[in-house]
Amino acid sequence: MPGETRGAMQNASLRILRICAAAALAALLAAPPARPAELKPETLAAFDRYAAARDAQFDEETQHDPFLWIDAQPPAKRAAYYNQLQNQGVVIEQLGRTINGKKYDVPDGMVHHWVGTVFVPGAKLATVVGLVEDYDHHSKYFAPDVARSKLLSRDGNHFLVYLRFHQKHILSVTVDTWHEAWYRAPSPTREVSRSHITRAQEVENPGTADEKLKPEGDDRGFIWRMNTYWKYEEKDGGTYVQCESITLSREIPLLLKPIIEPFITSVPRESLVGVLTHTRTAALPAPAVPANARPGEP
User: Fold this and answer.
1) Which of 59, 219, 265, 290 would suit a FRET pair with 7, their CA atoms being 20 to 30 Å apart?
2) Which domains does the chain have, with CATH numbers?
3) Which pLDDT tens digit goes with each residue over 74-113?
4) Residue 81 in contact with residue 70, Cβ under 8 Å?
């Protein structure tokens, strides 16, 4: 009973903390137009330097083993991760802003760097990659987080894509984004891709006659840029899917940071879990129907 009481008190404290964070966030984002979040040139330049360093590191590391992030972890941790994946779990970790021993700072912005992995039992590599490349149907596979999707052009393994993101946590936000993506296959059982947002504009009054795009970099600052890095490996009777995301959003005022930062940090994490979960669900092979099954029977 004492343990249950402590647990209940901890849960209540967590709920109160989230309510306080939500209230502080709402107050921040409801600030008058005289105080919009602004994507400054130096903020974007610093993020681009960090992303470029990760691009180069990613291209190099995909040429050799360990291929997946979990395979680079200590043996005990690696075994626990694989067990979690085999039981339909999502392995996800937050990464620091350090590339090859160098730390990157991004002034007047927040960088959220996460990596996650799922396992799709029974799925072939080509099936999973084909699903992710099917950008015209991302609004179906990844709903409700992706409200609209369209392949703008394709030249071999180079893609230009439009995606409308919609997020609803405490507040709703809709952002139109334009992406550039590249794919390649280091081996017959492995595929990699990386993409980046080339433009992001928040949508005001989405889905109404008054819908319009806010000026780029002059909005509430939920998402200004995002780079993603995907790895796919077919083994163990299925395909492992790893997605790493680096997202740039607005900075939080210093006085509100202790309250709001944990909540803000949880949003990219939850989004990545959703992307990976939806990918696994969409790529799972349909259950085989016995030849002697009667209509209407499982």
Assistant:
1) 265
2) 2-283 (3.30.530.20)
3) 999 999 999 999 999 999 999 988 899 999 999 999 999 9
4) yes
